[in-house]
Automatic annotation (TrEMBL):
Residues 50-425 form the FAD-binding domain. InterPro entries: FAD-bd (IPR002938), FAD/NAD-bd_sf (IPR036188), RIFMO-like (IPR050641). One of its GO terms (cellular component) is mitochondrion. One of its GO terms (molecular function) is FAD binding. This is 3-(3-hydroxy-phenyl)propionate/3-hydroxycinnamic acid hydroxylase. Keywords: FAD, Flavoprotein. One of its GO terms (biological process) is ubiquinone biosynthetic process.
Length: 710
């Protein structure tokens, strides 16, 4: 039975809604999880119907819950664990994620004040031990990062669990509460679910219905176990790399599996922190010596917090071989002396994959995969969490307009057509970065691909003939022969082999061929080719597309091309009280509501287009603001601005360019006749030049219909 909301929509007889009805019926019939019992909405379902249910309270699920809550969309989060993970995992927050966080009630500023000073993490250091010789050191910050040329905010370095804690505080301020299923809690089955992060709730099955999805959660509080069924319109799978929901809906991952297995050791040592702080501060330390090899991530030198990544070769090596005592020994071998204050907090095995889900939406767009549930990359380059955060920034406004019955469900599909290619591109980049990271051990005569091939050969060939403990001895024997390449005897300036290898290393570092930290072209320059936008067609390729020149570069080049992120430039509102009061063009897009932004120059033809689009947006119930960019020093226009052209509209802002040497329109590859429509996620939906628009009314209809999937 369709819900009352859907019935009333269908009664309106609108073409769109009858299409929606057909889509729903077809999808319910086609979906393998549909049972007739599930159609009977309400049976065994606790609590009222929720618009959005998010499964997984990792950083990605929490950011989405914050965006939706700010937009006024009711949602709840289910989390299987009873407490939030303390394993640091991600730590590098890229530029685009920081821009998104900047709009989340000052989260970016809090990250900046919680992270260690940048001089303590801007370098990657390659050494024979943490106290031994330095093979190379690479600084990953450029002067323009601090000058904020391309973005109003910088990249950051903060452990994932600290970021989650900051997010939880922000969510609490928005009225979202963490609920632990504890006998003392006054939970009533019918009490509202929205604005709750329900801990100890593990999603175990789902059933799509006509109206959405019924989710079954196993609820545990450490002692008791019960089951709860919840009903939602849209189910978001943010349940991580081993997503249960992805498995339940039968979505396959495509790509390369098991690139490398590692053991991750989270430990504290103030002695090590102080030593590195004084002698060689950095973010990543790649240590290669005869006794051990590992990558140390300095999460916070001043707090002595580290994670060590050690290559791991099961089944010859067991997880049990990595006891806290064994890990302490490895740490000492990497440090070069026995630390007295090591406190191992957690030891976790993990496998590196390079995979993207074949589909991001299933069950008539009711089940949506985001974050690691949709893609899992090698951490080289730090794209995992960042890509997930950008996924939910993309989907949040689409969910809003779909649930408000302004957009059709096809707007949700554009999430897949926009984000999946980005995940594929970031996967390829992360694999390339992983290979670049391997160039250093290779130059040292330690080819990791050989280690992996030997391991594979033992597993597939020798494994069937020789006993397991002997396999382990063979593997360790081969590894120690490999590590002998790192002995002082080989790696010294008198040994010709050592000289050759050290020279090769120098070249790798000088030419930027080792692992890099920043990828501005991917971080800020990613561009959606198709989706909720009007792509440039062959007729309008007269716009220069510098970013699309096919040049392989890490450089970010601002552009006004549809699908790109709106370029950043400082502008001054006409209402500014002082000359210092400037805004980034990104600030013109609201962070609190899903509002579109139309950017024009103060020209008659552009004002006409603005008035038409404002009228059309109001008719469709789309939030829209207009920004008029005036040339630098438009002092004479300051008192009246665009009033005469745009009254009685109030939702417009007049700003002027701050720099006389660079025009906004030139930066966007347009002339001042340019018109840009920007989506609530700060990506450009449409661009034109006002003198190219013959019929503004039909153009406005066409553009808004395309963007909203009508
Ligand atoms: C060593 C390492 C370093 C990394 N460094 C970086 C970095 O610097 N930058 C970066 O961007 N990324 C990095 N990553 C990747 C990053 O950690 C992940 O991409 C990120 O955790 C993904 O967030 P998520 O919210 O999608 O999933 P997760 O963080 O995995 O969260 C998923 C949540 O869902 C819960 N859950 C799972 N199943 C269920 C269920 N059935 N019901 C209810 N809840 C469930 C889990 O308990 C978990 O809390 C790194 C990863 C590793 C391993």
């Amino acid at each position: 039975m369709p819900s009352m909301a859907i019935v009333s929509r269908l009664r309106r007889g609108d073409l769109f809604f009858s299409r929606l009805r057909r889509q729903l019926a077809a999808a319910v019939a086609a979906c393998p999880f549909t049972s007739s019992a599930a159609h009977d909405a309400g049976t065994g379902v606790s609590g009222p119907h929720l618009p959005v249910l998010i499964v997984g309270a990792g950083p990605v699920g929490l950011v989405l819950s914050m965006l939706l809550t700010k937009f006024g969309i009711k949602c709840a989060v289910l989390e299987k664990s009873l407490s939030f993970s303390r394993h640091p995992q991600a730590h590098f927050i890229n530029n685009r994620s920081m821009e998104i966080f900047r709009k989340l009630d000052g989260l970016a500023e809090e990250i900046e004040s919680s992270q260690p000073p940048v001089d303590l993490w801007r370098k990657f250091i390659y050494c024979t031990s943490l106290s031994g010789s330095i093979l190379g050191s690479v600084d990953h910050m450029q002067p323009e990062d601090f000058e904020k040329v391309n973005s109003p905010v910088c990249v950051a370095h903060l452990s994932q669990y600290k970021l989650v804690n900051l997010l939880l505080k922000k969510l609490e301020k928005l009225g979202m509460h963490v609920y632990r299923h504890d006998p003392s809690d006054d939970w009533e089955p019918d009490s509202p679910l929205e604005k709750r992060i329900l801990m100890g709730h593990e999603c175990t099955s789902i059933q799509p219905t006509n109206e959405g999805v019924i989710v079954t959660a196993r609820v545990h509080n450490g002692t008791t176990l019960e089951e709860r069924r919840l009903h939602c319109s849209i189910l978001i799978a943010s349940d991580g790399a081993r997503s249960t929901i992805r498995r339940l809906v039968g979505v396959e991952m495509k790509g390369e599996r098991g690139l490398q297995e590692l053991i991750s050791v989270h430990f504290m040592s103030m002695d090590l922190g102080n030593f590195l702080l004084k002698n060689r501060p950095g973010m990543l330390f790649f240590v290669f010596n005869q006794d051990a090899i590992g990558v140390l991530v300095a999460h916070h030198l001043e707090q002595g917090e580290f994670v060590l990544q050690i290559p791991y070769y099961p089944p010859q090596q067991n997880y049990q071989d990595f006891s806290p005592q064994a890990c302490e020994k490895i740490i000492s071998k990497l440090v070069g002396w026995a630390l007295q204050d090591v406190q191992v907090l957690d030891i976790k095995p993990w496998v590196m994959h390079a995979e993207v889900a074949e589909k991001y939406l299933t069950c008539n767009n009711r089940v949506i995969l985001v974050g690691d549930a949709a893609h899992r990359f090698p951490p080289a380059g730090g794209f995992g969490m960042n890509t997930g955060i950008q996924d939910v920034h993309n989907i949040a406004w689409k969910i809003f307009y779909f649930l408000k019955e302004v957009a059709s469900s096809s707007v949700l599909q554009t999430y897949e057509s926009e984000r999946r290619p980005i995940a594929i591109s970031n996967t390829n980049l992360s694999v390339e970065n992983f290979k670049a990271a391997m160039s250093v051990p290779s130059a040292l005569g330690l080819d990791p691909t050989v280690a992996n091939s030997v391991h594979r050969a033992i597993n597939t060939g020798l494994g069937s003939i020789i006993p397991k403990n002997m396999q382990k001895a063979v593997l360790e024997g081969i590894f120690s022969v490999g590590r002998a390449q790192l002995s002082d005897y080989v790696l010294n300036e008198k040994n010709p082999v050592g000289v050759m290898r050290l020279e090769k290393l120098k070249r790798i570092f000088a030419e930027g061929k080792s692992l890099q930290l920043q990828f501005p072209a991917h971080d800020l320059g990613f561009c959606y080719k198709e989706g909720a936008l009007v792509a440039d067609t062959s007729e309008n390729t007269q716009y220069c597309n510098r970013a699309g020149s096919g040049r392989v570069s890490r450089e970010y080049i601002p552009t006004g091309r549809p699908g790109s992120r709106l370029p950043h430039m400082h502008v001054k509102p006409f209402t500014a009280a002082s000359t210092e009061e400037t805004l980034s063009t990104l600030d013109l897009v609201s962070g609190d509501k899903p509002e579109f932004l139309l950017i024009i120059a103060p020209l008659k033809a552009s004002y006409h287009i603005a008035r038409v689009i404002l009228t059309k947006a109001e008719e469709l119930r789309v939030l829209l603001k207009v920004c008029i960019v005036w040339p630098h020093c438009s002092c004479q226009s300051r008192s009246t601005g665009s009033r005469a052209e745009l009254e009685p509209w109030k939702n417009y802002i007049d700003v002027e360019e701050c720099k006389k040497d660079r025009s906004w329109w030139d930066m966007c590859c347009l002339t001042n006749k340019g018109v840009l429509l920007v989506r609530p996620d700060e990506h450009i939906a449409w661009r034109t030049e006002s003198d190219r628009v013959a019929d503004a009314v039909s153009e406005a209809e066409k553009v808004l219909s395309r963007v909203l999937g009508l």
